[in-house]
Design goal:
Order of helices and strands: HEEEEEEEEEE
Number of helices: 1
Number of strands: 10
Helix content: 10-25%
Length: 150
């Protein structure tokens, strides 16, 4: 061969295996906390995220009898709670730490199963981290026994 060529590069099997392994680990790290397979209590309604109604104002989310006192129910991307008898609150069901769906609501606490963040069911404030930001509230309206998006 004549002319100048750049430096010779030898790609070894070790280099290829390391690169493929690193890419796989990066993919796992990116998806570890970002997704949700929440099938608990979904009523098939359209989802609401971060307090935005997505044009669904007036859509029924639940009946008041479906929301236990001191607990709550997850409906799509909304968690509805009843901190005191007859008082209903709603928040985004996405944890503010890394976006996992909260799963448990009991004894006045909303719990994220991914890293254990806990939120107050009466106002969405953080009770225990790693989350540092409260759950965003979602506007709802209680009309008789029906809870709808406001």
């Amino acid at each position: 061969m004549t002319g100048t060529q750049g430096p010779s590069r030898t790609v070894t099997r070790r280099t290829v295996v390391a690169a493929v392994g690193g890419a796989g680990l990066a993919a796992v790290a990116l998806t570890a906390c970002g997704g949700s397979d929440d099938t608990s209590s979904d009523t098939g309604s359209d989802t609401v995220s971060g307090g935005q109604d997505g044009g669904q104002a007036g859509k029924e989310l639940a009946k008041t009898a479906d929301i236990p006192e001191g607990g709550g129910k997850i409906v799509g991307d909304v968690v509805i709670t009843q901190p005191k008898p007859g008082e209903f609150k709603a928040f985004s069901s996405k944890c503010t730490h890394q976006g996992c769906a909260v799963k448990d609501i009991a004894d006045g606490v909303i719990v994220c199963p991914c890293h254990g963040s806990k939120f107050d069911a009466s106002d969405g404030s953080v009770k225990a981290g790693p989350a540092t930001t409260p759950l965003p509230s979602t506007a709802i309206k209680v009309d008789g026994t029906s809870i709808t998006l406001a």
